[in-house]
Amino acid sequence: MAWVTDWAPTADELNSCIDCGLCLPACPTFRLTGDESASPRGRIAAMRAVAGGRAPLDGRFAEIMDLCLQCRACETACPSLVPFGRMMEGARGEVAAHRPDAPTIGRRVLFGRLIGSRVLVALASAAVGLAQRAGLASVGSGPLRKAAALRPIPIPVPTAAGREWLPDGTPIGTVALLSGCVMDAWYSQTHIAVIQVLRTAGYRVVAPPNQTCCGALAAHEGAVYDAARLAERNAEAFEGYDRIVVDSAGCSAHMKGYRHWADGGAKVADRVVDANEFVAQLLTEGLLPVIEGDVPIGIQDPCHLRHAQRIVEAPRAILGAAGCVPIEIDPAGMCCGAAGAYQLTHPDVSDQLGRIKADQIAGAGVAVVASPNPGCEMQLRAHVPPDVEVVHPIEVYWDKIK
Amino acid sequence: MDATARLIELLGVDRVRTEPIDRMVYAKDSGVTAGEPAIVVLPETTAEVAAVVRIAAAFDMPIVARGAGTGLAGGAVACPGALLVVLTRMNQIVMVDEVGRTALVGPGLINLDLSHALVGRNLHFAPDPSSQQASTIGGNAATNAGGPHCLAEGSTVAHVLGVEVVSADGEILMLGGAAPDPPGYDLRGLMVGSEGTLGIVTQLLVRLTENPPQTVTMLIAFDDINDAARTGSDIIGAGLVPAALEMMDHEMIVAIENFVSAGLPVEADAVLLAEVVGHADGVAEEAGVIRSIAVRNRATDVRVASDEDERALLWKGRKSAFGAIAQAAPDYYLNDTVVPRTRFVDVLGEIYAIADRYGIRLMNVFHAGDGNLHPLVSYDASQPGMTDIVVEAAHEMVCVAVAAGGTLSGEHGIGLEKRDLMDQVFTDVDLDAQARISQAFDPARRMNPGKVLPDGARCFDRPSS
Amino acid sequence: MFRSAELVTALRSVTRELFERLRDETVDADAAYVVAPASIEEAAAVLAAAADAGIPTTFRGGGNRRQTGAPAAADLIVTTTRLASIIDWRPDDLTVIVGAGLPVDDLESEIAERSQTAVLPETAAGSTIGGVLAAGASGYRRLRYGPTRDRVLQVRMATGYGKVVTGGSPVVKSSTGYGMARLVTGSLGSLGLIGEVTLKLWSRPLAVSTVRVDDAAAAYRRTYRPLAVLETPDGASLYLGGSANQVAAQAVAIGGRASPNLAWPEPITDPVRVEMRVPAACVEEAIRWVQRIGATRWIAQHGVGIVSAGIDALDVAGVGAARAWAESVSGALVVLAGADDRIDPWGTPPPSIEIQRRIKAAFDPAGICNPSILPGRL
Predict the structure, then answer these.
(1) Chain B neighbours, 3+ Cβ pairs < 8 A
(2) Beta carbons of C178 and B437 less than 8 Å apart
(3) For residue B131, with 0-12 CB atoms within 10 Å meaning exposed, 13-18 middle and 19 or more buried, which class applies?
(4) pLDDT tens digits for C302-346?
(5) Does residue B379 sit at the A interface (CB-CB below 8 Å)?
(6) Is the CATH code 3.90.180.10 the one for domain C86-203?
(7) What is the CATH number of domain C4-81+360-377?
(8) What pTM, to 2 d.p., does this model score?
(9) What is the ipTM of this complex?
(10) Cβ within 8 Å of C, B 107-136
(11) How close C233 comes to chain B (CA, Å)?
């Protein structure tokens, strides 16, 4: 059989793995199951089997692909630099193309179509916000319990898109901000902190009006055509900006890979900078104040920061500048189980990983954990005891310097 | 009821796999051979393994045990119709005895996870094959795995004190143990390195090694690989056995540096990575001797790792070498010959000459201290005829090593891949003797048949007694 | 089973010429024939003939360990006196190939020229390398360098079915086929005759020291890799090896009286000798047990788990109790010398006895090689 989409794993990609297996221990699902089919190498073997026409693209193939968290920890472990995350998105695209009626259809519609609509996201978010207020979440289970771990959602739901913020003096430059889909609705405080920190450093911050969801969730679900459409739209919306600041690791990682998704994608990709990376750089340049202090704070690395972008030092530097001493909770940087929508689609695996992470946090004996990504924050909050606070490094920093 | 149904009854449907794609996923280890199992099972206890073996026996199925599948010789590759027993879920650390310096572990425990679990107790598990971050201790025992630090500490067999084994007829036996020199034959010593052909190891009592009070790790660069090789040889000749003595050639250095960014000297023709450990005074003296031997052999730079992070990075680079080769070409062929240290420089020269003659690309990364060579041919199998050329050249390299008084495998094992080369180093009579051993453990030839020994190894009929 | 007259007839009819040619008159022993083959091939021919005729056979090196395993009487003794040379010493490879009949002391003094050691038993006067290997014996320095079997790289042997077999590989590291060299080491001549072995060598430390200590276990815990930690009724000592500065610094750190040599204890030569082999953590308790069974002389190896002891007379009940304890901690009590009908030299046979039996049968199908020397009277 042949692949049918432009995003399918290529022969070169499939050949770039020599089966050494060094990725296995880095893979959370392999760690939990000990099962080759739940490992990066096994998934590549499955992709090769289908690509080579030796196996059908059937329900079992879809299941094998679907269990992957797409945390990309295998990429950090891979000496042959296999682009696994890219391949997995492509493989899921193929699953979607071959099995349009698969049970995952709902997710593809949600993350491919609905999430691009600011109105729909706002409405859905408002509904969650109402549920929070009604106290429903605290008695529910599954997705409802996750909702409890969300920050309180403001009603009406705010949006950053189309707005602009000026620094106090003459701007030293302009940066564009990705307002995002759920970030905008659910994590407006993070946006505010990032914007204020950038203003403090002397930047004018613009959230271009025509932008949309980055498409990461669509790509992760295999809604490849939607992911491409969203990327195209953002490529246009961010035209003309030298630097695009993205304050969700999943989004910044995805946009750095736009070359795979849109014709003008490479141009956008090269200008994307994760907010942590950028703020750390501003600290190095001396454009931001440094607060002395020795408050211990646990640090949890979002996979799409640590593994997909290899950004490790930046959030630690930001916490350091906020007068905190970052405490490592997991030297291996294992996924916390949030993994975007995964925490909703695979609650069992997600919960097991969340508990491991909570145990690590308990083991480190910290009262506060910083995690620079909304999905991880939600997952951590759902698993740590109520007396452990989960925060965002840039918010911590802004809180200290404002 | 068929075998699958019996296995599902025993293990549940989730731990028994028969779908075509699952069988394909389990068809390979890290080597170049492949074979799909008929059924894949994931037992979690010794009792389950024993029951699985008995079911296989009842249905006359061959049994192949597998850990993380990082082997390089096809030892865990299924033979036709095999029941593949995946032991990764048996990964417990059952007990650590700090006084006796032992640990009781499951075969599926990842090598490096054991040493990580021992942090703070001043102990570690010494065998450190380059795959140690992924490979299981059961797999290490199956292949008698080596690694850089087996130079001074010995291969895995020196660190496995006892093994719990499920025998070919499904019986559970303990071989060896914490006490030294148990009476009777050293079946533990046979089990280690037997590549799953004598039984399935379901638990291991391993020796733990005290952490050295001091470690000095040196990266020594050379403009000529022959100088590096001679330095390695001279260090051993001086009677010095460092904790590790590794060598990498130019191509390998570049590929590794692309991955780890450890500041390796990418302009060098070769580097030696030498490590000395021990008491502070002794370490300083040994490092001094190594430095002076290197300088005498025209080393261009001697860099000493300044801290534990730098040391870890250098080792991460070395241990990623094999994995990094796909940067150069999609396919590879890897040898694992060992030669006497006195013949090391000559043999290396001959190996490069063979590569030149065949016009193939060679990358070299190996354990210089114990003469364990890993010439690695990287190539593109899609080029017509290329595979044949590479196999022919690689076999010629093996012949050179054997002619120099060497052997086929230092640490990867024989498995499927080198099985038919065994007659290069053993006579028919020798192979028959080894076949007698396998027959004594496994009269029905059920355990990993077709591995280690070539077909027909059993060439003399045993007189009846 | 053949004895005397019948045996001679059998030999005549089969291989008289061979046996006469190899006959060794120098060994005084209670056997119909003593032969000294000059090659492994000759030894194999002898064993083939002995197997055909069903002649119980034993092997003799230095003769120090004749009582180990209390073997049945043999009608044929094959000695290694003519297989006693250094065949190839490669000092720059830290390996040596020797004939099995070479005395340990001869090898050690030869390779001491380049300051190397095979780490064989230190006080083995007259022992041959083949004998040490067959017994699976190790020196005290196994604490630092590991047991002898870890240094046996390759073995050439004449099997009980009369073939010359090479097992293992002649290099310092190998994963090529089964660990034949490990199987043969400690097999007590039950599979055939060890004729030639390749050993891994170590450099001798530049400096050594013996430090008297009060508490051996405590001193061991504080010292990085001593050569040995021994305790005898006369007290305890740490044996150090390394660079001069290192040994001096370690000796000072331990405290206690230091002498700049390795002062090994006198070997135990009592008519009844037992050896406790227990987990290292149980050594102190094993010492108490050997004292309880009346040991006047004993040597305990801390960190290893061996306590060798000499006793005047075999106290069957006492040894039985000590053995029961040793086996309860997954160890063994072995009666190395002086065992009689009242007590088995090895104790409870290992659970793998069936596989052991099959291995014995595979290598000695006629059952002629040191019959009944193994645990379980194999």
Answers:
(1) A, C
(2) yes
(3) buried
(4) 999 999 999 998 889 999 999 999 999 999 999 999 888 899 999
(5) no
(6) no
(7) 3.30.43
(8) 0.94
(9) 0.95
(10) none
(11) 22
